[in-house]
Amino acid sequence: MTTLTTERLIMRQWQATDFPAYAKINQNPEVMEFYPSMLTPEESHAQAEKFRLQIEQKGWGFWALSLKNDERFIGFVGLNDPTYDLPFSPCVEIGWRIDSAFWRKGYAYEAAQKSLQFGFEVLNLEEIVSFTSTTNLKSMSLMKKLAMTDTQQNFQHPLIADGHPLSEHVLYKIRNPALPL
User: Fold this and answer.
1) How far is the C-alpha of 90 from the C-alpha of 82, rounded, in Å?
2) What is the helix (H) or strand (E) element at residue 175, kind and residue range?
3) Which pLDDT belongs to residue 41?
4) What's the CA gap between 14 and 1, in Å, rounded?
5) For residues 148 and 44, is the Cβ–Cβ distance under 8 A?
6) Would you say 3 and 12 are in contact if contact means Cβ atoms under 8 Å apart?
7) End-to-end CA, the chain
8) What's the CATH code, domain 4-129?
9) What is the model's pLDDT at position 179?
10) Which burial class, exposed, middle or buried, applies to 22 when counting CB atoms under 10 A from its CB (0-12, 13-18, 19+)?
11) What mean pLDDT, rounded, does the chain reach?
12) Would you list the DSSP string of 109-131?
């Protein structure tokens, strides 16, 4: 199991003590603005358990994110291989969800950079994708800051009902810089 650290953050395996804080994050309308609905505490727990199992089995995934100075849990950042069918499957995605109290501090960027480094240098991935609703300008801004490129290949997310205002998604990609063009 891999634990990653940055100057200010620890990306680690999920612990039972993270689950209540994660449920609170998933009940925050600001955090969940670009998801079809907020998650119940039971749904949050199940999702966190899924993330924990993936890390246990593969050694990587959507890591629990905590502050280095006080070990406070603030959300997740990491890599995932979606199990549902996407127009560009198979793939490995980078994703994040951070408590809004910790936004605008550079934490998502710092942890996402470390995740990309791990994906390219340790997992030797050719590329990593990220996707979000076409209306989620904050996430798209982070994707651009990470040097990801908008593929201009929008798609309908298969887990969101057709016609839902959040169903159309953008697709961003970044190629492993160590690979030849």
Assistant:
1) 8
2) strand 168-175
3) 96
4) 11
5) no
6) yes
7) 32
8) 3.40.630.30
9) 82
10) buried
11) 94
12) HHHHHHHHHHHHHTS--SEEEEE
Q: Are 68 and 9 in contact (CB under 8 A)?
A: yes
Taking the C-alpha atoms of residue 38 and residue 27, their distance in angstroms, rounded to an integer, is: 5
Residue 79's DSSP bridge partners are 94
Note the Cα 67 to chain centre separation in Å.
17
Query: What number of residues does the chain have?
Result: 181
Q: How far, in Å, CA of 24 to CA of 174, rounded?
A: 32
- The residue type of 34 is F
Q: Is the pLDDT of residue 161 over 80?
A: yes
Query: Domain residue spans in the chain?
Result: 4-129
Whole-angstrom distance, CA of residue 56 vs CA of residue 83: 17
DSSP secondary structure letters along 41-96 = HHHHHHHHHHHHHHHHHHS-SEEEEEETTT--EEEEEEEE---S--TT-S--EEEE
Res. 1: pLDDT tops 90: no
Strand, helix or coil for residue 15: coil
Q: Which residue has the tokens 């798209």?
A: 140
Whole-number pLDDT of residue 36: 87
Among 173, 80, 166, smallest CA distance to 123 is for 80
144: which 2 tokens? 């651009």
Q: What is the CA radius of gyration of the chain?
A: 16
Structure token pair of residue 104: 């605008």
